[in-house]
Amino acid sequence: MLFGRSANSGGGGSATAAGGPDAGDGPAQPVRRKRFHRQLYFWVLVAIALGIAVGIAFPAQASQMKWLADLFIKLVKVVIAPTIFCTVVVGIANLGDLAKAGGLALKTLVYFTATTLLALTVGLVTVNILRPGVGLNISFDEADATETLDEASASDAEGVSGFILHLVPDSFFSAFVDGQLIQVLVLAILVACALTFMGNRARPAIRALDTGANVMFGVIKIVMYAAPIGAFGGMAYTIGEYGGEILGNLAYFMLSFYTTCVLFIAVFLGVIARIVGFNLFKFIRLIRDELLIVLGTSSSESVLPRMMTKLEAAGAKKSVVGLAIPTGYSFNLDGTAIYMTMGAIFIAQATGADISIWTQIGLLLFMLLSSKGAAGVSGAGLVTLAASLAAFDSAIPLAGIALIVGIDRFMSEARALTNLIGNGVGTLVVARWNGELDRDRLRHVLDHPNSIDMDELMSYDNAPEKPGAKAEADAAAGAGAEPVEPSAPAKEPAPTG
């Protein structure tokens, strides 16, 4: 039996697989495995390989295929904002205690700030050790970065007050129309607080929002069938448009950045995962589908709803997942943080700028703030880096950003992959810290990743229903008691043989 959801259960999480933890004393059913050609990761991997081949063989035509990746990303982004809104509202409202919700939010921000600072420090140390820009003396054309510099200037002009004002949308619906995830998150928290104050009167609204989230997950399931097409178009465009750049003087910088990302994931996130009680590499195996989609599209946003569903099924409580993942997409961008410090010092090295250790520390602390709010979409890291350099233009030439504009697409893939893994690990850490992680279920899922069937998780019409749940809910409602909440995990009885 595979993991599935139930429409009538309480608490928020995912159903436990029969044969897994909490399955009872009966014999466990063997995990049903899909054939490899029916796995999403297989077709995404094939699409990436075809994209590379087309990019090499037909670079001119391949450079025109970016629209395929853009189309897939737009299809996903259509439902991201309402999905986050409904999930966060239901998750916080189901806690029933604003003090508990506030504690969860505080722990989330503390952890994300700590890991961002760690990522910035790792990037700063490695770029000073490897020194990829020393001796290059590369000339650059400022015109190559005109668009990036214009966007950075607009961002820098807003300052801290502009960032704070940006947290609040112009109207309730403008956050959804513009796709501003951090604004959607703020609205969701406000609505969740209001529903909590209403008590039992808010139950119909919570049920309606939960149903809306279910609908959005159903749409995501349909859109994911186009993931291989998006991965093919994104990879073909990347190789066809920028393939020659990797053979130039910037190859060592790219290799240094990829090496640093791998180091950060394997060593630092690996240690954090071990402390929490799970194996990082098994976790990476669990999210392989999502990683391959991100590799092809260079956007971590493309798998946000799938990550929320999978982490919930792996044992993290729904309220934690609903708050941590959307928050992480603005406040826990580890890959972007590494890229920002490495990119800034690389530009200084390549242009012969001499910056002291104190200036580097000041740059790091400034980037700790400027990295917050960077979107999880392709190219956002470059603009954020340029906006940070604008504050240190006297030490590092801002126009030097033109040096890395041509290879930013390759860097974007590593940033997005690191961001995704960092947010997944962070969600499990916060869940464990808050005492809302089912460690037995997580261990079972990591050992048997095929016990999670994403098709079943996103098919609410076929979800198993807890026997008698509807009758119990109706009776509770008629008696004036608090009804059974939707969208929480129902445990299926183990087979009795």
Automatic annotation (TrEMBL):
Compartment(s) where it occurs, according to its Swiss-Prot or TrEMBL record: Cell membrane
Region: Disordered, residue numbers: 1-28, 456-497
Listed Pfam families: SDF
GO molecular function: fumarate transmembrane transporter activity; malate:proton symporter activity; succinate transmembrane transporter activity
Top-level taxonomic group: Bacteria
Transmembrane segments: 40-60, 72-96, 108-130, 181-198, 219-239, 251-276, 345-369, 381-405
PROSITE patterns: NA_DICARBOXYL_SYMP_2
Keywords: Cell membrane, Membrane, Symport, Transmembrane, Transmembrane helix, Transport
Any single GO CC term annotated in Swiss-Prot or TrEMBL for this entry: plasma membrane
GO terms under biological process: L-aspartate transmembrane transport
Biased composition (Basic and acidic residues): 463-473
Signal peptide range: none
Membrane topology field: Multi-pass membrane protein
Keyword tRNA processing: no
Biased composition (Low complexity): 15-28, 474-490
NCBIfam families membership: PRK01663.1
Matching PANTHER family: AEROBIC C4-DICARBOXYLATE TRANSPORT PROTEIN, PROTON/GLUTAMATE-ASPARTATE SYMPORTER
Protein name in UniProt: Aerobic C4-dicarboxylate transport protein
